[in-house]
Specification:
The chain is mainly α and 98 residues long. The protein is built from three helices and no strands.
Length: 98
């Protein structure tokens, strides 16, 4: 039974890695074709939101709108990641004291 769970965990891990690589590569190609600065940010999970926001900015600029969604999405994403990690560390610190 334990061997089956280990195999299942490796299959899930492999699927996650493949998903990450395909998603990052797709965003990289889109960003490069659109002429977005620093398409390499597509390989950083928080950078995904920056790339998508810049694609939205590019689309809005072509339609006559002047919204700056790229930096807003990056800031919100980075803040949510920081809050998540801070809360996890806080929970671990409380659990270790008990």
């Amino acid at each position: 039974m334990r061997i089956m769970l280990d195999v299942f965990e490796y299959v899930i891990l492999l699927a996650v890695v493949i998903n990450y690589v395909l998603w990052s590569r797709a965003l990289y190609v889109i960003a490069k074709r659109r002429g977005i600065n620093s398409p390499g940010y597509s390989w950083i999970p928080v950078g995904w939101d920056w790339i998508l926001g810049n694609i939205a900015d590019d689309f809005d600029a072509k339609n006559g709108s002047d919204k700056k969604i790229g930096s807003t999405m990056f800031t919100l994403s980075a803040t949510s990641v920081a809050v998540f990690f801070f809360s996890v560390m806080l929970v671990y610190a409380i659990a270790l004291k008990l």
